[in-house]
DNA sequence: GCCAACGTTGGC
DNA sequence: GCCAACGTTGGC
């Protein structure tokens, strides 16, 4: 199973709001980038990802799970983009900051450290395990 | 608030 | 189809 990373500005959509959405989750809409779209289309129900706060916080703060695969984003009037549904699974006991990720040599290839503008990113198995451990899980 | 990186748009 | 201009993102 693949792993992912979703970026959100907390002033727009925060981890607390994601948690408040509960088991029913929410749609991850608003993606308007073709690379991010490609990742959304590849997602399968049950796949997990990191929830990252950009701008404020700049840290991985929680784990989310895909609960509905790719379907059209009705907020996109061009009809070109879609979205998935996500629910919050658990918070990281200790948020993993961008600074900490950049300081970890084993994470030097992580997309977040190299292409900070991509809003939906793939995460490798190794990166997944390292960031989870840094966050106090497992 | 600045600006580098990146994506998109539109004139040619 | 190229590329300059422009807009947006997001780290700093």
UniProtKB/TrEMBL annotation:
Domain of life assignment: Bacteria
Domain named EVE: residues: 2-134
InterPro entries: 5hmC_binding, EVE_domain, PUA-like_sf, THYN1-like_EVE
CDD domains registered for this protein in UniProt: EVE
Gene3D superfamilies assigned to the protein according to its UniProt record, in alphabetical order: ph1033 like domains
Annotated TM spans: none
UniProt cross-references to PANTHER family, sorted A to Z: THYMOCYTE NUCLEAR PROTEIN 1
Protein name (database record): RNA-binding protein with PUA-like domain
Organism expressing this protein natively: Methylobacterium goesingense
């Amino acid at each position: 199973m693949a792993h992912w990373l979703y970026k959100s500005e907390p002033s727009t959509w925060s981890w607390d709001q994601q948690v408040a959405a509960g088991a029913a989750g929410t749609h991850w809409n608003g993606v308007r980038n073709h690379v991010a779209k490609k990742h959304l289309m590849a997602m399968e129900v049950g796949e997990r990802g990191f929830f990252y706060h950009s701008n404020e916080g700049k840290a991985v703060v929680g784990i989310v799970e895909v609960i509905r695969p790719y379907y059209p984003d009705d907020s996109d009037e061009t009809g070109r983009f879609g979205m998935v549904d996500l629910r919050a699974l658990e918070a990281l006991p200790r948020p993993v900051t961008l600074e900490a990720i950049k300081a970890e040599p084993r994470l030097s290839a992580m997309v977040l450290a190299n292409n900070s503008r991509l809003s939906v990113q793939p995460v490798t198995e190794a990166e997944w395990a390292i960031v989870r451990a840094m966050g106090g899980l497992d």
